[in-house]
Amino acid sequence: MRHETPSEENPVKPWRKLRFFPSMQPGGWSGLALISPPFAYSLLMLAAPLLLVFLLSMWTQNYLELDRTFTITNYKEAASEKLYQVLMARSVVISVIVTIVTVLLAYPIAYYIAFFGGKRKAIWLLLITIPFWTSYLIRVFLWKVILGYNGVVNGSLLGMGFIEEPLTFILYNANAVVITLAHAWAPFAILPIFVSISRIDKSLLEAARDLGDGPLRRFLRVTLPLSMPGVVAASLIVFIPTVGDYVTPRLLGGTDGLMIANMIQIQFGKANNAPLGSALAVSAMVIVASISIVFVLLNRRFLKVKG
Amino acid sequence: MKRPQKTNKQIINIKGVEKQFGDVTALNGVSLTIKEGEFFSLLGPSGCGKTTLLRMISGFDSPNLGSVYIDGSDMTNVPPNQRPTNMVFQSYAIFPHLNVAENVGYGLKKQKLPKDEIKLRVEEALALVDLEGYGAREAHALSGGQRQRVALARALIMKPKVLLLDEPLSALDKKLRETMQGELRKLQRTVGITFVLVTHDQEEALTMSDRIAVMFDGKIAQLDTPEGLYKRPKTKRVASFIGVMNFIPAKVIASTKTKLSLDVEALGKVDVGASDTIKSGEKITVGIRPEMLTILYEETDDADNVFSGIIVSASYYGDMTYYEVELGNTAIRATVSMRNTAGRPVLRAGTETRIGWGYESITVLDG
User: Which of B88, B86, B84, B120 is nearest to B101 (CA)?
Assistant: First the structure.
């Protein structure tokens, strides 16, 4: 936006000072009008509850009464209590592992579709969305069937004689959460990576070849750096929501696989301590945001590249 | 400036190359040799197979039949990264995530040279293309002309035996294109590397090349020096692709061992060099360049042969004027180009004039 400075030829008209946005361009108001319904909606549905959670986190719960004096006791408790520390750290670690596993699995798929999909690209992308045709809850239960003590994996491995007793490390712990989340979030990782690989000019790959690179070197020096915007986007898309995932650890995580969201739910529910739950939620948000910002900053040299 | 002595050593030898893409035949039996240190152009309209041929030399396409030899070795099973060729791509293919120096030094990195040497050679290469001090520039901050120079430096730093250029000037505006034509020629003389250029622009090919292969429909129609192509085009198609040519039907009166006697429509009887293939009585086409026809402004002006004409239209180009002239009392029209020297007026349509021409200006064309 252009800020006009008053000068002799161009004095600031008195009425302009009254304007809410003094440097608004012509047509700016109609633009604002255009975005106002979704803006109002997100204000109401996102910003307001967020503000409420923030407010709540500064209050304290005295049995049935809500003490409305501002205090940071809840944050002190959230930061010092060992249990919350463990849950928070575990949530971040599980999410990081889920993110790495998901992106590593998604990349070859996206690569294959972008380079070898040919005329069937659309069909491949459609196939990738198939898991979404059923509810997430059903998919989680299906993983329970697959990974369970008498489940598909154990049954097959026992039947083929690879193991003598059922594997127990694949259900009701963090491993099960990682496996399930990595599968659930794969499409969200495949799509942005696919888009960024598709956008790579094929002549750049030929140029790398021409200048002496074999397929592996060319991948590391051209394809991978140029697809990093997609990898960064995919990582954030997977990492941010999985830290706060609640259903998967609840159903598959057992006691070792519980995450911070489960504790927040407990605080709002059984423990009847909404302010502490809010403080945990805000802390989790701050931690996730900080990690995401550091991650983006670390990758900024890949992100500023213009195609 | 040092230029390695032009040897007669063959650097590229293409033998009977054929290539089909599905039902489309891109190359239909192409054989040619390119000499070391030569500036060689593949010229033709789009779809003639010139780019496919270049990609076969670079290794990005492989022939269905026939083979490519570079410096005496068969390249059939050699991938592009192991060939002694480097390419300047039509889009320049500058790596957007690297700066100018990293782009230029890209190919050296693999050779595990010490950092100082890479830096030195990058600076040398940048100096060669007049881009000293541009090393730290980001790729997206370059103009079209600069991108092209970076692409050139990046390829030349590899010291290839052959530099391949795929329509390198087509993305530049006219003025810059003309400057770069001269610079490319100069650069080629400086480094002495064999250049193989693909272009659809006949002027570009004529001004830069030592030899040109004109290609139509996946075949080489004619391979000659620029002068040879312009003066002695073999076919009507080559003649019309290179410059402007007037085509006039003629009848062969006599074909002897020493000469060919023709009766050219509107121009009259003329003797030209002998031909083995043309027999007497045959109807053929002859070509005559616009600059070989002269408008005789003065009554005293004379030529080998003079006939009358009426100017149908005049196109003024500043230095030249192109006239369309109806010859004699026939319906045949020819283009005549005249240099606009002092005191020579631009003639208006409808003016009756005398046209003169020399016997040696006629080219006999096959088909």
Answer: B120
* Phi, psi torsion values for B318, nearest 5 degrees: 95, -80
Distance separating alpha carbons of residues A271 and B284, to the nearest angstrom: 104
Whether residues B264 and B228 fall in one domain:
no
Q: Is B60 on the interface with A (CB under 8 A)?
A: yes
Intervals of chain A under pLDDT 50: 1-10, 12, 15-17, 307
Q: How far is CA B150 from the centre of its chain?
A: 24
B91 and A203 within 8 Å at the Cβ level: the answer is yes
- Chain A residue numbers with beta carbons less than 8 Å from the beta carbon of B91 are 201, 203
Distance from CA of A196 to the nearest CA of B (A): 14
Give residue A21's pLDDT. 54
Does one domain contain both B229 and B98? yes
Using the Cβ of A307 and the Cβ atoms of chain B, whether some distance falls under 8 Å is answered with: yes
Cβ-Cβ pairs closer than 8 A, A with B, add up to 65
Strands B194-199 and B162-166, sheet pairing: parallel
**Do B253 and B307 fall within a single domain?**
yes
Task: Taking residues B137-143, report their average pLDDT.
Answer: 91
Measure CA B329 to chain center. 37
Residue B360 domain boundaries:
244-365
| Helix runs in B226-341, H state only | 226-231, 236-241
pLDDT, one tens digit per residue, over A224-254 is 999 999 999 999 999 999 999 999 999 998 8
* Residue A161: C-alpha distances to residues A156, A170, A171 (Å): 8, 18, 20
Complex prediction ipTM? 0.85
**Which homologous superfamily is A73-303 in?**
MetI-like (1.10.3720.10)
A151's tokens: 């489940």
Cβ distance A211 to B86 less than 8 Å, yes or no, reads yes
**Would you put residue A35 in left (φ > 0), alpha (ψ -120 to 50) or beta?**
alpha
| Chain B touched by A204 (CB under 8 Å) | yes
Q: Is the pLDDT of residue B55 over 70?
A: yes
Q: Are A222 and A208 in contact (CB under 8 A)?
A: yes
What's residue A304's pLDDT?
77
Torsion of CA A212, B181, B150, B152, to 10 degrees: 20
Confidence bin at B367 (pLDDT 50/70/90)? low
CA triple B112-B117-B118, angle to 5 deg:
65
Interface contact A211-B89, CB threshold 8 A: no
* Residue A306: predicted pLDDT: 59
B263 lies in the same domain as B307: yes
pLDDT at A20: 55
Please judge whether A212 and B110 are an interchain contact, meaning their C-beta atoms are less than 8 angstroms apart. Answer: yes
The values of phi and psi at residue B308, to 5°, are -95, 155
Length of chain B counted residue by residue: 367
Instruction: Round to whole Å and give the CA distance between A176 and B79.
Output: 45
Radius of gyration of chain A (CA): 25
3-class DSSP assignment, residue B347: coil
Same domain, B152 and B253: no
CB B325 within 8 A of CB B309: yes
Q: Which amino acid is at A126?
A: L
Same domain, B152 and B63: yes
Q: Which residue has the tokens 């009008």?
A: A33
